[in-house]
Amino acid sequence: YSKGTILFGLDVARDAIRKEEKAVIVEGYFDVIGVHQAGLPLAVATCGTSLTPQHLELLTRTGAKEILFLFDGDAAGLRAAERAAELCAKGSVPARVATLPDAQDPDEFARKHGVDALRGLLE
């Protein structure tokens, strides 16, 4: 098992990623579950590690032409999103970062505001 090559939730998100040609990367397992339960099946998580070139390759092979980062709205989440976006830039993969209000995490935001607000935030 190598964390740098596994994306939690990819088995469930694969078809939606192919269809919408984008993937949403969140930080943790509960974030993936919460975002999926809210009605947005594009979420995957990096299993407690930073985004790696292998993760990026896996997502692009799956069909993602754009990566959306939805990390926790705290300082650590913003730093992680910045590093991940830099990796995407090096790999020539378009990426965007969505910021969550009030230092919420994606699971909490999805449960509180629903899928329409989540999609709006990602747009």
Kindly describe this structure:
It contains 5 helices and 4 strands. With 123 residues, it is α/β, with parallel strands linked by helices. The longest helix has 17 residues, at 106-122. The termini are far apart. The model has no long low-confidence stretch (mean pLDDT 91).
Percentage beta strand: 5-15%
Please tally the β strands and state the result: 4
Helical amount: 40-55%
Termini, distance in Å?
34 Å
Q: Structural class of the secondary elements?
A: alpha/beta
Q: Describe the sheet with the most strands.
A: 4 strands, parallel
- The rounded Rg comes to 13 Å
Rough outline: globular
Low-confidence stretches: none
In order across it, which strands form the biggest sheet? 2-1-3-4
Question: Taking all residues together, what is the mean pLDDT?
Answer: 91
Number of helices: 5
The SSE order reads HEHEHEHEH
How are the secondary structure elements laid out?
Elements (H helix, E strand, L loop, with lengths): L9 H11 L1 E5 L2 H10 L4 E3 L7 H10 L3 E4 L5 H16 L4 E3 L8 H17 L1
Parallel strand pairs: 1-2, 1-3, 3-4
Short structural description:
This protein has 123 residues and is α/β, with parallel strands linked by helices. Helix content is 52%, strand content 12%.
What attributes does this structure have?
123 residues
